[in-house]
Amino acid sequence: MAVAINQARTSISKMFNGEPRSYTRFNLAQNNDADSSQVEMKLSSDVEDEVGNPEDNHAPITYTQSPLHNYKKVCYLALGTLVIFILGYLVGYVSHRKPDAAAESCPTVLASTEEEGQDEGPEVAYLPSLGWNDITTLLEQKLSPDAFNTKFSEFSLPRDQTHEAGSDGDTHLANKVLGVFKDLNMQSWEDEHHVKLPRPSSDNPSKVLFGTEEIGTPKGFLAYSEVGSKTARVVYGNYGLLEDLSACIDKKVDLNGSVLLLRAGQISFADKVANAAKHGVVAVLIYPDPSDYDFKSSTELYGHVHLGSGDPYTPGFPSFENTQFPPSRSSGLPSVVAQTITASMALKIFQKMGGDPAPPNFQGKLGGGLSTYKLGSANDTVTVTVNSVLTETEIYNVFGVIKGNEESDRYVVIGAQRDSWGPGFARSTVGTTLLVELARAISEMIKNDRLSLRRSLVFASWSAGEYGSVGATEWQEGYLASLNMKAFTYINLDGVVTGRQMFKASASPLLYDLLKKTLNQVKNPLATPPGKSLYEQHAGSDWEASILETMKMNDAAYPFLALSGIPSISFRFCKDGGEYLYSGTDLDHLDHLQYATSSKIGELAVVAAQVAGQMALRLVHDHLLPLDVERYGKEIRKQVVEVNSRVNRLKQTADLDQALSEALSVKWLTTAYGDYGRAQRNLQETIKNSDVEDKEMCRIINDRIIKVEHNLLSPYVSVREVPFRHIFFGSGEHTMQALLDHLSALQQKAPESNADLFRNQFALATWTIQSCANDLSGTVWEMKNEI
């Protein structure tokens, strides 16, 4: 304030004393030799050069001003003094106001801070929105273990009441979630789908026979198995990994036409059945071996065998009521009869099997590990009968939205599965509770604590997740065009707490940097010593190797990434050295999760909510989206280097004709990668030189960022035929992994290899990357590619 007054006094002094002022285009100088009514105006040199000098080059151009009346002088001086004083006060206030050290991005200024209806009281200052440190502190204050432990009981059902998709229990929980959203004054709605879900037949149960002796009638269930009865020799194939089946073939065991006995674990049920089908297997039995699962030998397993997501009987189409569907089915549906059996049933089969001993790594602990596992003989005949009924079922997805103030049409989706085969405490209850608690906490921060969001948050409770993300996938298929350029991140809350020793995540490379920063900020009260950040606790010397995993098809975030091209992330706290044993069983209840987490479910839920909440809030708070396009450049480079290496090996080891050898060039793929790198650097330079307060400029930059993931969906394949079109994370012949596999097949001269087909795949993958680079470059007049 004192500085401002001094500035004002100096200005007044200059006005009265006539000190000269300098201007850009001309100078005013007081003529001390003449009357004060005369002022000289000297043209600056640049203007002199432009218009020329008068005849007397040294004589100044002089203008004469007539004397003013005294009272006019006094009025003008008083008015000038008042204006300068006010300006000085404002300049002094602004320049000496302490900046918000916590704000890591430019704040959005809120409207009036006055309480409605308040007529008296002290004047409230016009405050900026919250800084980032304020936001994270508030979020931490809003979440507590006690609140989570209370909510867990509200969103769980008794053990004897089913959560299965479309059941009364599922609908009951949907209404609870919807009620919470409405109580928080969120705009909320339901999305109804009519999907075909298989159910076990109560009249004609599934059964397994060894010869003519019944092994059992399992209650466990694998949805989307082929229905029918198959009889064939039984072969033991360990986990059903491709290398396991190759080991069987190396032992001269014929898999074609056999019944394959596999133990659960390592890969999904769908992957096991798909691997078996590649070798001509007609039926698959899957059991939990005591070496992997420490529960009772009578425990049943539940799951699905659709190698995909969504309703497999409406591939590429949303299952809305009265929608006309073509007669089609997903290519991911197996043609194999598949059934789970208990460990006790598997033991009966092993005790009757003959044949050669299984390899050492195939050995398990059935029967206390006293018996040696056999591969099976030609006389070991097993019959597998699977009976299920395909039922059209109504399912409901529930949504609530917190709208942003500037770009409400852009949103982050946070989702959790609501249904489960059994009690589903870790599978559905924890995730659903996190969903509603995050919605409550952020709503309260907006209502009571001045939180202002630029973009929107959509909270989604999905049904039929146990059948392969059916609810979430059908929603995406129904709104693919609407989600493009609007939904720019998906955060999955399924299974976020299944243990406490380790932290694992799978995500789009665009989200790696945001995840790393979040892990550095979130403290874990259960760490040793307490208060360590998650990054310090779990990262190790290489955080990506320690924490990151490849996103798998059975991950609920997978269809968002590979089908819709939306950057997605899943994460979880888990036990050291293994998965949560009770998922997909009737044993997934509170007591077992308490045991797996050392009775710290509430504390871990708070930390998980902090991770999801901070990532979501950062994405909807900052001017520019914190999605790292540079990290994707590293992923592209890694793939290009691997392709180049295999092409060189192929040329050196295979007898190729000259035309094919010349055609197998990575030149254009390398050029596409180079163009992506240049586009990414150009974007960084644009960001560096841009004003983040310019809303239009921020939106243009964000558009370029958002498109990256979507542009890596191959435009050359049909979403109906190949739903997972992402060239890095998808599934099919269009992917970079398929190219690498084809190069290996060409080198080995495998029968399925085809040089012309490979060249076509290679060209399409190259142009997908090139198109992504072009779009990242910006407008068409900024693209300088010469590919």
Notes on the protein architecture:
Helix 19 (629-653) packs parallel to helix 23. The longest helix has 27 residues, at 70-96. The protein has 4 domains: 2-96, no CATH class; 143-199 and 391-621, Zn peptidases (Aminopeptidase); 205-386, Glucose Oxidase, domain 1, CATH 3.50.30; 629-782, Transcription Elongation Factor S-II, Chain A. It is an alpha/beta fold and 787 residues long. It starts with a helix and ends in a 10-residue tail after the last helix.
Tell me the total number of β-strands: 20
- Mean pLDDT across the residues is 85
Quaternary structure state of the chains depicted: single chain
Model regions low in confidence, pLDDT < 50 over at least 5 residues:
1-69, 94-127
Task: Predict the CATH topology of the largest domain.
Answer: Aminopeptidase
How many domains, as an integer? 4
Compute the separation of the termini in Å: 62 Å
User: In CATH's first tier, which class of the largest domain applies?
Assistant: Alpha Beta
Beta-strand percent range: 15-25%
Corresponding CATH superfamily of the largest domain: Zn peptidases
Structural class: alpha/beta
Structure annotation, total helices = 24
